Amino acid sequence: QVLLVESGGGLVQAGGSLRLSCAASGRPFSIYAMGWFRQAPGKERDFVAGINWSGTSTGYADSVKGRFTISRDNGKNTVSLQMISLKPEDTAVYYCAASRDHSNWDYYSMDYWGKGTLVTVSS
Fold first, then answer.
1. Where does the pLDDT of residue 1 fall: very low under 50, low under 70, confident under 90, or very high at 90 and above?
2. What does the alpha-carbon distance between residue 29 and residue 10 come to, in Å, rounded to a whole number?
């Protein structure tokens, strides 16, 4: 079992920045691929960014490329999402997730989910 706890959400103006963090506990963190997903009100949960177990490979949704950066620190059991140039359409609950597949951050490969942190971007 892996417990994931997100933090760092809040209210920010358009154009601003936020850094989300996800702290993992339980099984060895370094074996998991990690992902960030988001769910806006009334919409499905969508992929935002993913990173493989070693941090050597990342992937992003087209809508956030060039603005969001995912990273991980296996020594601290954390994964982060740096968000810049935020837009109102980035408003959502952001979820951290872990996959036992070392290098697959696809939604359907995720085995563990955090409870989410709310990001609100005002115009």
1. confident
2. 26
Q: What span, in angstroms and rounded, lies between the C-alpha atoms of 23 and 43?
A: 26
- The burial class, CB within 10 Å (0-12 / 13-18 / 19+), for 61 is middle
pLDDT digits (tens, 9 = 90+) for 14-73: 999 999 999 999 877 778 999 999 999 999 999 999 999 999 999 999 999 999 999 999
What is the C-alpha to C-alpha distance for residues 62 and 117, in angstroms, rounded to an integer?
21
**For residue 91, pLDDT beyond 80:** yes
The values of phi and psi at residue 44, to 5°, are -75, 165
Residue from 18, 1, 8 nearest 78 by CA:
8
pLDDT at 14: 98
Instruction: Report the distance separating Cα 95 and Cα 91, nearest Å.
Output: 13
Give me the torsion for CA of 92, 94, 100, 103, rounded to 10°. Answer: 80
